[in-house]
Amino acid sequence: MANFKTLDDLDDLNGKVALVRCDLNVPMQDGNVSDDTRLRAAIPTLTELADKGAKVLVLSHFGRPKGEDPMLSLSPISSALEKVLGRPVTFITDTYGEAAEQMVGLMAAGDIAVLENTRFNPGETKNDPELTKKIAALGDIYVSDAFSTTHRAHVSTEGLARLLPAYAGRAMEAELKALEAALGDPERPVAAVVGGAKVSTKLDVLTNLVAKVDHLIIGGGMANTFLAAKGVDVGKSLCEHDLTDTALSILASADAAGCTVHLPYDVVCAREFAANADNRTVNVHEVAENEMILDIGPAAVEALADVLKNCRTLVWNGPLGAFEIEPFDRATVGLAKTAAALTRDGSLVSVAGGGDTVAALNHAGVADDFSFVSTAGGAFLEWMEGKDLPGVVALSA
């Protein structure tokens, strides 16, 4: 991963204006923030900059507005951020221009303000150079602290890093270091768990990983496609039969790269997708035509736990089964608990990411035990695909 500057590289900030890209795109319910994880993630960077005497201007998008939409104003989120930070936060109704400049002029060293939704400007998502200049005119430095947005080349995620001295905030720094430890320059052997419903959504991930990891553990609905490719009758399981040739080519690439692919050999089946449905655990070759595979079986989970015990690094994206409903969450919970225990013992570096994955690890009660859990969805996936992320590349330009 390229070199980037952090807040440690900043000298005298007194009275300087720091434009900080955070991710305030939080879920709302009845006008209130229902999950403040992303707001809390911004605390270390915002407080450090303010305590060093900077005037801190927070930039973020919220939702997908078509032009200015009062329902998608950052004003209520600015109030929620104030509560989380435990210090005053001003809301500025623009992102650039005379009114915004006047408000910034009234700020004292150490003050924090949130600018209006960046996507109210049509040029934001087009990375418009003119808009970039207008917003950059407000600040002296740019701090990127929203890894979750780095796969987009927008004004607030990439453009500003080209015009102003650019630094990674504390959340961004932690994320980049964790990702480097996981796939950039990892301790070997490396295992990857890739789950989820469909091979089609993770094709690039699987293709990239077989060349980088020593063990690839495939779970979820996508495992059925690989089993079908190997001639297993998966009954009425979720399966992309049109992708069996693709699955075979991924297996061949893994073989050529010396990567061991682990597919389940015992599975939990049911005739219906419902909580506590009648189910049975069988060998993969014994799935009846009216059954669907909903989880990996206990023998396979035990074998996978043994694989992890011999690994030094783990990257995890996606559940192993239909973890949302019992008892089809057992494999995901079981293997997650093994990974967490190995991490606590100091023998495994574990990095996980993606919405379903975070939910699954929280469900297993082990999210806090992993070395690093990324809340970034699209950006984490593109990183696993081996793609350059514009917002990260711009930091090292």
Task: Give an overview of the whole structure.
By secondary structure, the protein is of the alpha/beta class. It folds into two domains: 7-172, Phosphoglycerate kinase, N-terminal domain (Rossmann fold, 3-Layer(aba) Sandwich); 186-384, Rossmann fold. It is 37% helix and 17% strand. It has helices spanning 37-41, 43-51, 75-85, 98-106, 129-136, 155-163, 170-184, 203-210, 220-229, 244-257, 298-309, 330-344, 355-364, 378-384, 390-395, and strands spanning 17-21, 28-29, 32-33, 55-59, 89-92, 112-115, 141-144, 166-168, 190-194, 215-218, 260-262, 266-270, 279-283, 292-296, 313-317, 349-353, 372-374. The protein has a six-stranded parallel beta sheet, with helices on both faces. It has a six-stranded parallel beta sheet with strand order 11-10-9-15-16-17, sandwiched between helices. The protein has a three-stranded antiparallel beta sheet with strand order 13-12-14. Helix 9 (220-229) crosses helix 10, helix 11 (298-309) runs parallel beside helix 12 (330-344) and helix 12 (330-344) packs across helix 13. The longest helix is centred in the middle third of the chain and has 15 residues, at 170-184. The radius of gyration is 23 Å and the shape is elongated. 49% of the residues are buried.
Features:
15 helices, 6-stranded parallel β-sheet, single chain, 397 residues, elongated, Rossmann fold, 17 strands, alpha/beta
**Count of discrete domains:** 2
Number of helices: 15
What helical percentage do the residues reach? 25-40%
Low-confidence stretches: none
